[in-house]
Design brief:
The structure holds 2 protein chains of 2 kinds. Chain A is built from 3 helices and 16 strands. By secondary structure, chain A is mainly β. Chain A has one domain: Beta Barrel (Porin). In chain A, strands 1-2-3-4-5-6-7-8-9-10-11-12-13-14-15-16 form a 16-stranded antiparallel beta barrel. Chain A starts with a helix and ends with a strand. The model of chain A is unreliable at about 15-20 (pLDDT under 50). Chain B has a single domain, classed as D-Maltodextrin-Binding Protein, domain 2 (3-Layer(aba) Sandwich), CATH 3.40.190. Residues about 20 of chain B have low confidence and may be disordered. Classes of the chains: A mainly beta, B alpha/beta.
Chain lengths: ~375, ~140
Protein backbone atom coordinates (compact mmCIF):
# COMPACT_ATOMS: atom_id res chain seq x y z
CA UNK A 1 0.00 0.00 0.00
CA UNK A 2 1.31 3.46 -0.86
CA UNK A 3 2.36 6.00 1.73
CA UNK A 4 -0.71 8.06 0.79
CA UNK A 5 -2.94 5.00 1.34
CA UNK A 6 -1.39 4.32 4.73
CA UNK A 7 -1.87 7.96 5.70
CA UNK A 8 -5.50 7.87 4.57
CA UNK A 9 -6.24 4.69 6.54
CA UNK A 10 -4.56 6.14 9.60
CA UNK A 11 -6.52 9.40 9.35
CA UNK A 12 -9.79 7.47 8.89
CA UNK A 13 -9.18 5.30 11.94
CA UNK A 14 -8.13 8.30 14.03
CA UNK A 15 -11.12 10.33 12.83
CA UNK A 16 -13.56 7.54 13.69
CA UNK A 17 -11.82 7.07 17.02
CA UNK A 18 -11.93 10.78 17.79
CA UNK A 19 -15.62 10.88 16.92
CA UNK A 20 -16.27 8.24 19.56
CA UNK A 21 -15.77 8.00 23.25
CA UNK A 22 -11.95 7.94 23.53
CA UNK A 23 -12.41 5.51 26.40
CA UNK A 24 -12.58 2.60 23.94
CA UNK A 25 -9.50 3.59 21.98
CA UNK A 26 -6.55 1.25 22.38
CA UNK A 27 -2.97 1.65 21.23
CA UNK A 28 -0.50 -1.21 21.42
CA UNK A 29 2.86 -1.96 19.85
CA UNK A 30 6.04 -3.95 19.84
CA UNK A 31 9.67 -3.63 18.77
CA UNK A 32 12.33 -6.32 18.39
CA UNK A 33 15.99 -6.61 17.46
CA UNK A 34 17.45 -9.88 16.21
CA UNK A 35 20.92 -11.33 15.74
CA UNK A 36 22.08 -14.28 13.61
CA UNK A 37 25.46 -15.99 13.58
CA UNK A 38 25.97 -19.00 11.32
CA UNK A 39 28.62 -21.38 10.07
CA UNK A 40 29.26 -22.28 6.39
CA UNK A 41 26.46 -20.23 4.78
CA UNK A 42 24.78 -16.84 5.07
CA UNK A 43 21.11 -17.19 5.99
CA UNK A 44 18.09 -15.06 4.93
CA UNK A 45 20.22 -12.56 2.96
CA UNK A 46 21.92 -11.51 6.19
CA UNK A 47 25.71 -11.70 6.48
CA UNK A 48 25.14 -14.12 9.30
CA UNK A 49 28.52 -15.80 8.74
CA UNK A 50 30.11 -12.70 10.28
CA UNK A 51 27.30 -12.23 12.82
CA UNK A 52 24.55 -9.88 11.73
CA UNK A 53 22.20 -7.53 13.55
CA UNK A 54 20.31 -6.70 10.37
CA UNK A 55 16.97 -7.79 11.77
CA UNK A 56 14.73 -5.10 13.20
CA UNK A 57 10.95 -5.11 13.47
CA UNK A 58 8.28 -2.95 15.02
CA UNK A 59 4.54 -2.36 14.88
CA UNK A 60 1.90 -0.04 16.26
CA UNK A 61 -1.78 -0.91 16.34
CA UNK A 62 -4.71 1.35 17.05
CA UNK A 63 -8.26 0.09 17.46
CA UNK A 64 -11.57 1.42 18.64
CA UNK A 65 -14.86 -0.20 19.63
CA UNK A 66 -17.25 2.08 17.77
CA UNK A 67 -20.30 0.20 19.05
CA UNK A 68 -20.90 -3.05 20.94
CA UNK A 69 -20.72 -4.93 17.64
CA UNK A 70 -18.44 -2.81 15.45
CA UNK A 71 -14.71 -2.47 15.92
CA UNK A 72 -12.27 -0.74 13.60
CA UNK A 73 -8.52 -0.68 13.66
CA UNK A 74 -5.23 -0.87 11.86
CA UNK A 75 -1.67 -1.94 12.47
CA UNK A 76 1.43 -0.46 10.86
CA UNK A 77 4.44 -2.72 10.64
CA UNK A 78 8.09 -2.15 9.80
CA UNK A 79 10.41 -5.06 9.15
CA UNK A 80 14.05 -5.21 7.99
CA UNK A 81 15.52 -8.71 7.70
CA UNK A 82 18.73 -8.66 5.69
CA UNK A 83 17.74 -7.40 2.23
CA UNK A 84 14.06 -8.14 2.88
CA UNK A 85 11.56 -5.49 3.89
CA UNK A 86 13.00 -2.10 4.64
CA UNK A 87 12.56 0.99 6.74
CA UNK A 88 9.15 1.80 5.22
CA UNK A 89 5.92 1.25 7.14
CA UNK A 90 3.39 -1.17 5.66
CA UNK A 91 -0.19 -1.81 6.68
CA UNK A 92 -0.16 -5.15 8.48
CA UNK A 93 -3.94 -5.17 8.80
CA UNK A 94 -6.64 -2.51 8.64
CA UNK A 95 -10.20 -3.65 9.02
CA UNK A 96 -13.73 -3.06 10.12
CA UNK A 97 -15.07 -5.93 12.21
CA UNK A 98 -18.78 -6.48 12.77
CA UNK A 99 -19.92 -9.23 15.14
CA UNK A 100 -23.55 -10.25 14.68
CA UNK A 101 -23.26 -12.78 17.49
CA UNK A 102 -20.76 -15.42 18.64
CA UNK A 103 -21.67 -17.60 15.66
CA UNK A 104 -21.18 -15.05 12.89
CA UNK A 105 -18.98 -12.02 12.38
CA UNK A 106 -17.47 -10.35 9.32
CA UNK A 107 -14.15 -8.58 8.91
CA UNK A 108 -13.43 -6.46 5.83
CA UNK A 109 -10.30 -4.62 4.69
CA UNK A 110 -6.74 -5.81 4.84
CA UNK A 111 -7.07 -8.93 6.99
CA UNK A 112 -4.66 -11.49 8.40
CA UNK A 113 -4.82 -14.78 6.51
CA UNK A 114 -5.71 -17.82 8.63
CA UNK A 115 -3.65 -20.90 7.80
CA UNK A 116 -2.41 -23.48 10.28
CA UNK A 117 -1.61 -22.63 13.86
CA UNK A 118 0.52 -19.52 13.44
CA UNK A 119 0.21 -17.96 9.97
CA UNK A 120 -1.80 -14.94 11.05
CA UNK A 121 0.37 -14.25 14.10
CA UNK A 122 3.80 -15.19 12.74
CA UNK A 123 5.05 -11.58 12.70
CA UNK A 124 4.24 -11.03 16.39
CA UNK A 125 7.48 -12.17 17.97
CA UNK A 126 6.38 -11.61 21.57
CA UNK A 127 3.88 -14.51 21.34
CA UNK A 128 6.47 -17.22 20.85
CA UNK A 129 9.31 -18.98 22.62
CA UNK A 130 11.03 -19.28 19.26
CA UNK A 131 13.23 -16.74 17.49
CA UNK A 132 12.29 -18.39 14.19
CA UNK A 133 9.10 -20.38 13.74
CA UNK A 134 9.41 -23.63 11.73
CA UNK A 135 10.58 -22.31 8.37
CA UNK A 136 9.03 -25.27 6.58
CA UNK A 137 5.62 -23.59 7.02
CA UNK A 138 6.36 -20.05 8.10
CA UNK A 139 9.30 -18.84 5.97
CA UNK A 140 10.28 -15.43 7.26
CA UNK A 141 11.58 -14.36 3.82
CA UNK A 142 8.08 -14.73 2.31
CA UNK A 143 6.11 -13.73 5.36
CA UNK A 144 4.57 -10.52 4.05
CA UNK A 145 2.92 -12.33 1.14
CA UNK A 146 1.57 -15.19 3.25
CA UNK A 147 0.49 -13.02 6.17
CA UNK A 148 -2.44 -10.96 4.92
CA UNK A 149 -4.75 -10.15 2.03
CA UNK A 150 -7.10 -7.41 0.87
CA UNK A 151 -10.59 -8.81 1.14
CA UNK A 152 -12.92 -10.13 3.76
CA UNK A 153 -13.64 -13.00 6.05
CA UNK A 154 -16.55 -14.56 7.87
CA UNK A 155 -15.76 -16.03 11.25
CA UNK A 156 -17.48 -17.45 14.29
CA UNK A 157 -17.69 -20.32 16.70
CA UNK A 158 -20.25 -22.89 17.69
CA UNK A 159 -20.73 -24.25 21.20
CA UNK A 160 -21.06 -28.02 20.88
CA UNK A 161 -21.99 -28.50 24.52
CA UNK A 162 -19.91 -28.96 27.64
CA UNK A 163 -18.92 -32.51 26.69
CA UNK A 164 -18.17 -31.79 23.04
CA UNK A 165 -16.12 -28.58 23.12
CA UNK A 166 -16.34 -25.68 20.67
CA UNK A 167 -15.89 -25.40 16.92
CA UNK A 168 -14.18 -22.28 15.51
CA UNK A 169 -14.38 -21.45 11.81
CA UNK A 170 -13.08 -18.79 9.42
CA UNK A 171 -13.59 -18.40 5.67
CA UNK A 172 -11.82 -15.71 3.66
CA UNK A 173 -11.46 -14.37 0.13
CA UNK A 174 -9.27 -11.61 -1.25
CA UNK A 175 -6.20 -10.69 -3.18
CA UNK A 176 -2.53 -10.96 -2.22
CA UNK A 177 0.48 -9.16 -3.64
CA UNK A 178 4.04 -10.45 -3.48
CA UNK A 179 6.26 -8.20 -1.41
CA UNK A 180 8.57 -6.38 -3.82
CA UNK A 181 11.36 -6.82 -1.26
CA UNK A 182 10.39 -10.39 -0.36
CA UNK A 183 11.87 -13.80 -1.03
CA UNK A 184 9.68 -14.88 -3.98
CA UNK A 185 10.50 -11.70 -5.93
CA UNK A 186 14.22 -12.19 -5.16
CA UNK A 187 14.02 -15.76 -6.45
CA UNK A 188 12.30 -14.61 -9.65
CA UNK A 189 15.06 -12.02 -10.10
CA UNK A 190 17.54 -14.90 -10.05
CA UNK A 191 15.76 -16.17 -13.20
CA UNK A 192 16.08 -12.71 -14.78
CA UNK A 193 12.47 -11.76 -14.13
CA UNK A 194 11.66 -8.20 -13.12
CA UNK A 195 8.22 -6.58 -13.01
CA UNK A 196 6.94 -3.00 -13.04
CA UNK A 197 4.52 -3.95 -10.27
CA UNK A 198 4.83 -6.98 -7.97
CA UNK A 199 3.07 -10.23 -8.99
CA UNK A 200 -0.36 -10.71 -7.43
CA UNK A 201 -3.38 -13.00 -7.47
CA UNK A 202 -6.55 -14.21 -5.82
CA UNK A 203 -6.56 -15.93 -2.45
CA UNK A 204 -9.33 -17.80 -0.72
CA UNK A 205 -9.62 -20.48 1.91
CA UNK A 206 -10.79 -21.44 5.33
CA UNK A 207 -9.83 -22.78 8.71
CA UNK A 208 -11.80 -25.04 11.05
CA UNK A 209 -10.53 -25.85 14.51
CA UNK A 210 -12.08 -27.90 17.26
CA UNK A 211 -11.37 -26.94 20.86
CA UNK A 212 -11.94 -30.44 22.21
CA UNK A 213 -13.47 -31.23 25.62
CA UNK A 214 -10.02 -32.47 26.67
CA UNK A 215 -8.70 -29.34 28.36
CA UNK A 216 -6.12 -27.49 26.26
CA UNK A 217 -6.33 -29.76 23.20
CA UNK A 218 -7.16 -28.17 19.84
CA UNK A 219 -7.13 -29.91 16.48
CA UNK A 220 -7.84 -28.31 13.14
CA UNK A 221 -7.49 -28.12 9.42
CA UNK A 222 -6.83 -25.25 6.99
CA UNK A 223 -6.98 -24.87 3.25
CA UNK A 224 -5.90 -21.99 1.05
CA UNK A 225 -5.90 -21.44 -2.69
CA UNK A 226 -3.48 -18.93 -4.16
CA UNK A 227 -2.55 -17.83 -7.66
CA UNK A 228 0.05 -15.38 -8.94
CA UNK A 229 0.42 -13.55 -12.25
CA UNK A 230 2.67 -10.78 -13.54
CA UNK A 231 4.26 -9.63 -16.78
CA UNK A 232 7.50 -7.71 -17.16
CA UNK A 233 9.95 -6.66 -19.88
CA UNK A 234 11.80 -10.00 -19.77
CA UNK A 235 8.71 -12.22 -19.65
CA UNK A 236 5.90 -13.32 -17.42
CA UNK A 237 5.18 -15.56 -14.45
CA UNK A 238 1.98 -17.54 -14.06
CA UNK A 239 0.98 -19.79 -11.19
CA UNK A 240 -2.51 -21.28 -11.58
CA UNK A 241 -4.72 -21.57 -8.49
CA UNK A 242 -3.05 -24.01 -6.12
CA UNK A 243 -4.53 -25.58 -3.02
CA UNK A 244 -2.42 -25.87 0.13
CA UNK A 245 -3.83 -28.15 2.82
CA UNK A 246 -2.74 -28.20 6.43
CA UNK A 247 -3.63 -30.22 9.51
CA UNK A 248 -2.56 -29.39 13.02
CA UNK A 249 -2.91 -30.15 16.72
CA UNK A 250 -1.95 -28.19 19.79
CA UNK A 251 -2.07 -29.22 23.43
CA UNK A 252 -1.40 -26.85 26.32
CA UNK A 253 -1.45 -28.72 29.59
CA UNK A 254 -0.13 -26.74 32.55
CA UNK A 255 3.54 -26.04 31.96
CA UNK A 256 3.74 -28.29 28.93
CA UNK A 257 2.97 -27.04 25.41
CA UNK A 258 2.86 -29.43 22.45
CA UNK A 259 2.11 -28.69 18.80
CA UNK A 260 2.45 -30.37 15.42
CA UNK A 261 1.48 -29.54 11.84
CA UNK A 262 1.56 -31.13 8.41
CA UNK A 263 1.12 -29.09 5.21
CA UNK A 264 1.15 -30.15 1.60
CA UNK A 265 1.53 -27.52 -1.10
CA UNK A 266 1.79 -28.42 -4.77
CA UNK A 267 2.80 -25.52 -7.03
CA UNK A 268 3.09 -25.25 -10.81
CA UNK A 269 5.09 -22.19 -11.76
CA UNK A 270 5.32 -21.22 -15.45
CA UNK A 271 7.93 -18.69 -16.57
CA UNK A 272 7.62 -17.38 -20.13
CA UNK A 273 10.51 -15.60 -21.89
CA UNK A 274 9.22 -14.63 -25.35
CA UNK A 275 8.62 -17.97 -27.15
CA UNK A 276 10.45 -19.93 -24.42
CA UNK A 277 8.47 -21.53 -21.61
CA UNK A 278 9.97 -22.91 -18.44
CA UNK A 279 7.85 -24.98 -16.08
CA UNK A 280 8.86 -25.41 -12.46
CA UNK A 281 6.67 -27.94 -10.63
CA UNK A 282 6.95 -28.00 -6.87
CA UNK A 283 5.39 -30.40 -4.40
CA UNK A 284 6.34 -29.30 -0.94
CA UNK A 285 5.63 -31.43 2.12
CA UNK A 286 6.25 -29.77 5.44
CA UNK A 287 5.80 -30.90 9.02
CA UNK A 288 7.07 -30.29 12.50
CA UNK A 289 6.57 -31.46 16.07
CA UNK A 290 7.34 -28.94 18.85
CA UNK A 291 7.55 -29.06 22.62
CA UNK A 292 7.70 -26.13 25.02
CA UNK A 293 7.98 -26.15 28.79
CA UNK A 294 7.63 -23.39 31.41
CA UNK A 295 10.64 -24.05 33.62
CA UNK A 296 9.91 -21.10 35.89
CA UNK A 297 7.57 -18.13 35.97
CA UNK A 298 9.85 -16.15 33.67
CA UNK A 299 11.76 -18.89 31.86
CA UNK A 300 10.50 -21.07 29.00
CA UNK A 301 12.45 -23.61 27.00
CA UNK A 302 11.52 -25.61 23.92
CA UNK A 303 12.61 -27.66 20.98
CA UNK A 304 11.24 -28.48 17.55
CA UNK A 305 12.18 -30.27 14.36
CA UNK A 306 11.13 -28.61 11.11
CA UNK A 307 11.05 -30.75 7.97
CA UNK A 308 10.61 -29.52 4.39
CA UNK A 309 11.06 -31.50 1.22
CA UNK A 310 10.26 -30.81 -2.44
CA UNK A 311 9.03 -34.16 -3.69
CA UNK A 312 9.32 -33.25 -7.38
CA UNK A 313 13.11 -33.25 -7.08
CA UNK A 314 15.38 -36.06 -6.04
CA UNK A 315 15.16 -36.02 -2.26
CA UNK A 316 18.78 -37.13 -2.15
CA UNK A 317 20.03 -33.70 -3.26
CA UNK A 318 20.51 -31.26 -0.41
CA UNK A 319 18.91 -28.41 -2.38
CA UNK A 320 15.54 -30.20 -2.31
CA UNK A 321 15.11 -30.34 1.44
CA UNK A 322 15.57 -28.43 4.69
CA UNK A 323 15.71 -30.20 8.03
CA UNK A 324 16.18 -28.04 11.09
CA UNK A 325 16.71 -29.19 14.68
CA UNK A 326 16.07 -26.32 17.05
CA UNK A 327 16.55 -25.72 20.76
CA UNK A 328 15.35 -22.50 22.29
CA UNK A 329 14.98 -20.52 25.51
CA UNK A 330 13.08 -17.37 26.40
CA UNK A 331 13.34 -15.17 29.48
CA UNK A 332 10.71 -12.57 30.35
CA UNK A 333 12.44 -9.74 32.23
CA UNK A 334 9.02 -8.31 33.07
CA UNK A 335 5.58 -8.02 31.42
CA UNK A 336 7.03 -5.90 28.62
CA UNK A 337 10.65 -6.94 27.94
CA UNK A 338 11.94 -10.36 26.94
CA UNK A 339 15.01 -12.04 25.45
CA UNK A 340 15.42 -15.25 23.43
CA UNK A 341 18.34 -17.48 22.49
CA UNK A 342 18.11 -20.30 19.96
CA UNK A 343 20.35 -22.89 18.32
CA UNK A 344 19.66 -24.25 14.82
CA UNK A 345 21.20 -27.33 13.23
CA UNK A 346 20.23 -27.03 9.58
CA UNK A 347 20.64 -29.82 7.02
CA UNK A 348 19.83 -29.11 3.38
CA UNK A 349 19.50 -25.78 1.63
CA UNK A 350 15.94 -25.95 0.34
CA UNK A 351 14.87 -22.87 2.31
CA UNK A 352 16.36 -19.56 3.38
CA UNK A 353 19.55 -19.27 1.27
CA UNK A 354 20.13 -16.70 -1.48
CA UNK A 355 22.76 -16.31 -4.18
CA UNK A 356 23.34 -12.64 -3.34
CA UNK A 357 24.88 -13.45 0.03
CA UNK A 358 26.26 -16.87 -0.96
CA UNK A 359 27.95 -16.04 -4.32
CA UNK A 360 30.26 -19.08 -4.14
CA UNK A 361 27.43 -21.54 -3.62
CA UNK A 362 26.06 -23.11 -0.47
CA UNK A 363 27.28 -25.97 1.69
CA UNK A 364 24.79 -28.66 2.77
CA UNK A 365 24.88 -28.01 6.53
CA UNK A 366 24.73 -24.92 8.71
CA UNK A 367 24.86 -24.37 12.44
CA UNK A 368 23.28 -21.15 13.56
CA UNK A 369 22.84 -19.12 16.72
CA UNK A 370 19.84 -16.78 16.78
CA UNK A 371 19.00 -14.24 19.46
CA UNK A 372 16.26 -11.68 19.83
CA UNK A 373 15.23 -9.10 22.36
CA UNK A 374 11.85 -7.45 22.30
CA UNK A 375 9.45 -5.04 23.91
CA UNK A 376 5.68 -5.23 23.71
CA UNK A 377 2.93 -3.13 25.26
CA UNK B 1 28.20 -22.33 57.65
CA UNK B 2 26.43 -25.58 56.77
CA UNK B 3 23.77 -24.91 59.45
CA UNK B 4 23.17 -21.41 58.06
CA UNK B 5 22.75 -22.84 54.56
CA UNK B 6 20.35 -25.51 55.85
CA UNK B 7 18.35 -22.83 57.68
CA UNK B 8 18.17 -20.72 54.50
CA UNK B 9 16.90 -23.71 52.47
CA UNK B 10 14.25 -24.56 55.09
CA UNK B 11 13.16 -20.92 55.30
CA UNK B 12 12.86 -20.66 51.51
CA UNK B 13 10.89 -23.93 51.40
CA UNK B 14 8.56 -22.74 54.14
CA UNK B 15 8.09 -19.45 52.28
CA UNK B 16 7.10 -21.27 49.08
CA UNK B 17 4.68 -23.53 51.00
CA UNK B 18 3.08 -20.57 52.77
CA UNK B 19 2.70 -18.67 49.49
CA UNK B 20 1.03 -21.72 47.90
CA UNK B 21 -1.23 -22.18 50.93
CA UNK B 22 -2.29 -18.53 50.86
CA UNK B 23 -3.00 -18.78 47.11
CA UNK B 24 -5.08 -21.92 47.54
CA UNK B 25 -7.04 -20.36 50.39
CA UNK B 26 -7.68 -17.13 48.47
CA UNK B 27 -11.41 -16.71 47.99
CA UNK B 28 -12.54 -15.15 44.72
CA UNK B 29 -16.08 -13.97 44.00
CA UNK B 30 -17.35 -13.57 40.45
CA UNK B 31 -19.33 -10.32 40.37
CA UNK B 32 -21.53 -8.86 37.67
CA UNK B 33 -23.64 -5.81 37.02
CA UNK B 34 -27.15 -6.00 38.43
CA UNK B 35 -28.53 -5.97 34.86
CA UNK B 36 -27.16 -9.48 34.26
CA UNK B 37 -30.12 -11.82 34.52
CA UNK B 38 -28.28 -15.10 35.07
CA UNK B 39 -27.18 -16.05 38.56
CA UNK B 40 -24.68 -18.81 37.82
CA UNK B 41 -22.06 -19.71 35.23
CA UNK B 42 -20.27 -22.92 34.43
CA UNK B 43 -16.42 -22.99 34.33
CA UNK B 44 -16.36 -23.27 30.52
CA UNK B 45 -18.51 -20.14 30.17
CA UNK B 46 -16.23 -18.15 32.46
CA UNK B 47 -13.18 -19.27 30.53
CA UNK B 48 -14.79 -18.45 27.18
CA UNK B 49 -15.97 -15.02 28.32
CA UNK B 50 -12.55 -14.02 29.64
CA UNK B 51 -10.59 -15.39 26.68
CA UNK B 52 -12.71 -13.58 24.09
CA UNK B 53 -14.22 -16.77 22.65
CA UNK B 54 -17.68 -15.74 23.75
CA UNK B 55 -19.09 -12.23 24.01
CA UNK B 56 -22.56 -12.96 25.42
CA UNK B 57 -24.06 -14.59 28.48
CA UNK B 58 -26.25 -17.66 28.01
CA UNK B 59 -29.35 -15.40 28.09
CA UNK B 60 -28.03 -13.58 24.98
CA UNK B 61 -27.12 -10.32 26.72
CA UNK B 62 -23.73 -8.73 26.06
CA UNK B 63 -20.91 -9.49 28.50
CA UNK B 64 -18.18 -6.97 29.38
CA UNK B 65 -15.45 -8.90 31.19
CA UNK B 66 -12.92 -6.81 33.11
CA UNK B 67 -9.62 -7.63 34.81
CA UNK B 68 -7.42 -6.64 37.70
CA UNK B 69 -3.97 -5.47 36.61
CA UNK B 70 -2.23 -7.99 38.87
CA UNK B 71 -1.97 -9.35 42.36
CA UNK B 72 -2.91 -12.62 44.09
CA UNK B 73 -6.65 -12.38 43.36
CA UNK B 74 -5.91 -11.91 39.65
CA UNK B 75 -3.48 -14.85 39.66
CA UNK B 76 -5.86 -17.15 41.54
CA UNK B 77 -8.78 -16.24 39.27
CA UNK B 78 -6.78 -16.90 36.11
CA UNK B 79 -5.38 -20.15 37.48
CA UNK B 80 -8.73 -21.51 38.68
CA UNK B 81 -11.13 -20.22 36.07
CA UNK B 82 -9.06 -19.80 32.91
CA UNK B 83 -6.23 -22.25 33.51
CA UNK B 84 -3.60 -19.67 32.57
CA UNK B 85 -0.74 -17.94 34.30
CA UNK B 86 -0.90 -14.12 33.99
CA UNK B 87 1.82 -14.33 31.31
CA UNK B 88 -0.07 -16.93 29.26
CA UNK B 89 -3.23 -14.90 29.58
CA UNK B 90 -1.45 -11.74 28.38
CA UNK B 91 -0.06 -13.66 25.38
CA UNK B 92 -3.50 -14.95 24.52
CA UNK B 93 -4.86 -11.41 24.34
CA UNK B 94 -1.81 -9.98 22.59
CA UNK B 95 -2.40 -12.51 19.83
CA UNK B 96 -5.96 -11.26 19.36
CA UNK B 97 -4.89 -7.60 19.47
CA UNK B 98 -1.94 -7.86 17.07
CA UNK B 99 -3.89 -9.95 14.54
CA UNK B 100 -6.85 -7.56 14.50
CA UNK B 101 -9.21 -10.06 16.13
CA UNK B 102 -9.88 -8.35 19.42
CA UNK B 103 -9.29 -5.54 21.88
CA UNK B 104 -7.67 -5.90 25.28
CA UNK B 105 -10.01 -6.21 28.24
CA UNK B 106 -10.24 -3.20 30.52
CA UNK B 107 -7.93 -3.48 33.55
CA UNK B 108 -8.23 -1.97 37.02
CA UNK B 109 -5.53 -1.27 39.56
CA UNK B 110 -7.73 -2.08 42.54
CA UNK B 111 -10.75 -4.17 43.47
CA UNK B 112 -12.59 -1.03 44.55
CA UNK B 113 -12.17 0.50 41.10
CA UNK B 114 -13.29 -2.74 39.45
CA UNK B 115 -16.37 -3.00 41.70
CA UNK B 116 -17.31 0.59 40.96
CA UNK B 117 -17.06 -0.03 37.19
CA UNK B 118 -19.00 -3.32 37.39
CA UNK B 119 -21.73 -1.66 39.44
CA UNK B 120 -22.40 1.02 36.81
CA UNK B 121 -21.70 -0.82 33.53
CA UNK B 122 -24.44 -3.04 32.06
CA UNK B 123 -23.13 -6.54 31.32
CA UNK B 124 -19.87 -6.02 33.22
CA UNK B 125 -18.35 -9.07 34.92
CA UNK B 126 -15.26 -9.21 37.13
CA UNK B 127 -13.80 -10.86 40.22
CA UNK B 128 -12.89 -9.68 43.71
CA UNK B 129 -11.75 -11.15 47.01
CA UNK B 130 -14.59 -9.55 48.98
CA UNK B 131 -17.75 -7.63 48.27
CA UNK B 132 -18.15 -4.60 50.52
CA UNK B 133 -21.60 -3.56 49.29
CA UNK B 134 -23.65 -6.61 48.20
CA UNK B 135 -26.42 -4.34 46.90
CA UNK B 136 -24.15 -2.69 44.33
CA UNK B 137 -23.31 -5.82 42.29
CA UNK B 138 -24.57 -9.34 41.72
CA UNK B 139 -22.49 -12.27 42.97
CA UNK B 140 -22.57 -15.14 40.47
CA UNK B 141 -22.12 -18.69 41.59
CA UNK B 142 -19.97 -21.15 39.66
CA UNK B 143 -21.49 -24.48 38.69
CA UNK B 144 -19.32 -27.47 39.50
Amino acid sequence: MSRRGIGLCFVLVCACAAAQDMDHLQIHGFATQGFLYSSNNNYLTMKSGEGSLQWTEGAVSISDAVTDKLRIGMQLHMSQIGDFGGPKLVVDWASGDYTFNDRVGVRVGKIKTPMGLFNDSQDVDSLFVWVLLPQAMYPVDNRDYNLSEMGGEVYGSLDLGTKRGRLHYRGHIGGSVLDENGGYVRQLEQYGMTFPSPPSGKTYGGDVRWATPLEGLTVGSSAISTSVDAAGPMGSVHTPPTLTLGQYAQWDRGKLHLAAEYWRSPLYIVLTYGPMRQVMPLDSRAWYPMVGYDVAKKLQVGTYYSHYVNKTQSTQGFVSYSKDWVISGRYNFNSYFYGKLEGHFLHGTGLGYYQSTNPNGVKPNTKMLAARIGFSF
Amino acid sequence: MRATLRFAVYAAGLGVMLTCAVSLAQEVFIVANKSVSISQLNPAEIRELFTGTKSRFSDGSRAVPVLLKGGPVHEVFLHRQVGDTPEEFRMRWRKLVFTGQGSMLREFASEAAMLEYVSVTPGAIGYVSRVVDPDAVKILSVQR
